[in-house]
Input
Amino acid sequence: MLPPASVIRLAGEQRELPYKAPYAGMIPSARKAAIMGDHWQQASQRQPGGQSPETPHGSRIDPYVGQYAERARGMVASEIRALFAVTARPEIVSLAGGSPYVTALPLDAVGEMFGQLVAGRGSAALQYCTAQGDAGLREKICEVMSLEGIRAHPDDVVVTVGSQQALDLITRIFIDPGDVVLAEAPSYVGALGAFAAYQADVVHVPMDDQGLIPEALGEAIAAAGAAGRRVKFLYTVPNFQNPAGVTLAAGRRHAILDICRAAGLLVIEDNPYGLLGFEGEPMRALRADDPQGVVYLGSFSKTFAPGLRVGWAAAPPAVRDKLVLAAESAVLCHSSFAQMAVREYLGTQGWREQIKDFRELYRRRRDAALEALSAQMPDGCEWTRPAGGFYVWLKLPDGINAKAMLPRAVSSRVAYVPGTGFYADGSGAGHIRLSYCFPEPERIREGIRRLASVIETEMELRDTFGTDAIPRGTGVDTPGPGDL
Amino acid sequence: MLPPASVIRLAGEQRELPYKAPYAGMIPSARKAAIMGDHWQQASQRQPGGQSPETPHGSRIDPYVGQYAERARGMVASEIRALFAVTARPEIVSLAGGSPYVTALPLDAVGEMFGQLVAGRGSAALQYCTAQGDAGLREKICEVMSLEGIRAHPDDVVVTVGSQQALDLITRIFIDPGDVVLAEAPSYVGALGAFAAYQADVVHVPMDDQGLIPEALGEAIAAAGAAGRRVKFLYTVPNFQNPAGVTLAAGRRHAILDICRAAGLLVIEDNPYGLLGFEGEPMRALRADDPQGVVYLGSFSKTFAPGLRVGWAAAPPAVRDKLVLAAESAVLCHSSFAQMAVREYLGTQGWREQIKDFRELYRRRRDAALEALSAQMPDGCEWTRPAGGFYVWLKLPDGINAKAMLPRAVSSRVAYVPGTGFYADGSGAGHIRLSYCFPEPERIREGIRRLASVIETEMELRDTFGTDAIPRGTGVDTPGPGDL
Output
């Protein structure tokens, strides 16, 4: 059994970390607040007089507490955020983060290429560029998208600061407070964060092991219409979904497109993992069959390197125009250097072979994870079997709370992301996301061994004291970038 | 005299440029619309049935025209945007752009440093990092800010995608539609764009050659209060202001801070040029004397390289926390590579010496510009004499319209930014901004010679036909990043 002291010790150690979450245990999270409509209650909790004793040194009384925009009132860190920071310690096996294994890149060759780029073309690479992005890179991006059946023109593409910025800009141009976004249940935490930042209401649509369920999508659209709600778009990660690891079946893709077209609903197809499948050819993109109805989001973060922050959106012309203007207002333009570096990488470094290497590397790690899960997990656990990407979605035995268990798991030197981070409606406490992308296979096996032991201990607690003995966490999880 | 045909030819050539502005002459600009409250009129102009014959090929009917967020209805490019793109042609002397002269950097040494960074520490440099930014870089940033008297802790700093992203995030966390931002008249166009994107109302406060006028600031605050408006912050570029080239006098700085403190008003101190003064030591920053009342924005775009997009905000703790969360929602995190590259540059490459070299280079160009203006400009022109930075602000003779003149100037192979871009209220048509940062001194002299000739021709037109003969431009200018 794990004493509460271990949790307190972890919390105390936050002070040494680069980012300190000053709200630990103090304020409910952004999305919960948005749903519950308790913005003002939150604000009042932050009044000087209401300052919590937990507020650490350095976070002083906020003289601007009454000044923030309505949208900012929900911008608060969750109490588990700091816990994630400690998962970077070497003794902890982190199955939480979604960091790609960039060490597998040919770092010497990439470094030489970067050096030559500055020495030879530094006057352009170190200068401003246009908000739409480097034209040569946009050509290469069209080549990359053609692997998934997309025929695009470089004019259709806007380069973004990772695909997260594309999510931000799409939401910025489409969402008024209270508008509805349809999204899979569960959905990518970064997308939910962007939607929440513009005060969207996310309505989750069920998935099964074949991905989003067309009938459920139709019902959700009809229900929103009957309730007089304005639905602005469907957000979907069709391939090797984050966090569920499932892929939208080929046979469902046309049905999804037909339903959205009939409803006049734009589709946001977020596809960071599409080229990282372990079996056969890449799936045909939704955008390949409906370029006017789909905004496709891509990223080089998983196929090359997240540290350059190069993603993109391919959009219908009018949407593209708005995205360019929104990007300019947000950051003026992307980094010329990063864009030229990716263009150069795609032009000279055998990127197709590198993706094959990554696929093989992640396939081995997926296999290690699935084998260890089969061998170690107690009865009552269920999990998905991803055919690509980074994630396994695991259902805990009944009565086990993923969030309440997390501090004890970290004390047992294994970390994961509780399922609550992937829902806008507070559900998901019965699930966890396990990432197999970063640790070596032997570490994955060790981490799953530790996790199985933690779950078994929780089950003993449950059987002895009932589910009420497990303290329930508060707030929705918002892990940091390294955890996504 | 310049025939209208020359203008038409330029417009026709837009089609070859990477970014096409499909709205030329069709729709009033974002800020004008925001002020006039004619969002819906704009939207209706874009209905399929109302499509203008000027809409170029490739910009099809927009099926999402009724779907955009309220804030996006104003996101439209101005008709002069495409004109700026042609200023990149070698035959044109562009005094429009604000691009620093990065060719003066030691490109071989910087390239070697970049290469070693990836080869030696690529596993970190190509990976995700935290949303607040690289801790080592934030330490170095504090060292840079200490040159202006700021005593900051790395915890106070948030690294941003250029200081434009800091402007975006500050506006995002503080501005509800209709809130007032106080800003100098004129003000930086990128800041006005960020304020407009969140539907702020900008109230301009007059400057003179000593910068912002404290009495005028006090009056603006009082007037806004009397009108029941919510003023959220003062936005100011105190040093070598963009576009006016003036510097806030030392004797006024405490007065400005006192007025804002008494009004409970946050100050946004945007300082990209502070270290690029031509005379004496850097001015003491506003933040140096009121760290709780000032958010300081800095940038490496002018002292190192804009192509890495590394800027920062130093903010009071509670504001910093909101900025970190907003940054995460917007882009997850900044580029590890770019941050480590700047950190490495500051640690190894003699950045203080490089800034001295830049100062000397820009001083020579400023001198060339001022000498040529004195020698060439016709009576009736007046201009500022900047003691640093990139810009001269020139008042045209009465009755000459800067925007109407621009196509003729470009036909005469010289470009500038019309003053209208730097006001949220549609004024500024009697001014132009001239940048001396990028062209060689001889080119600056040639450009000013051409410009003087264009102005003289305008004056002849004015004297012959009266001011009505000069066609008035419509909309407010929103130049692209390369023009700022």
Remarks:
- Residues 128-348 of chain B form a domain with the Aspartate Aminotransferase; domain 2 fold (CATH 3.40.640.10).
- Chain B has a mean pLDDT of 86.
- Chain B has three domains: 4-21+77-102+355-483, 34-75, 128-348.
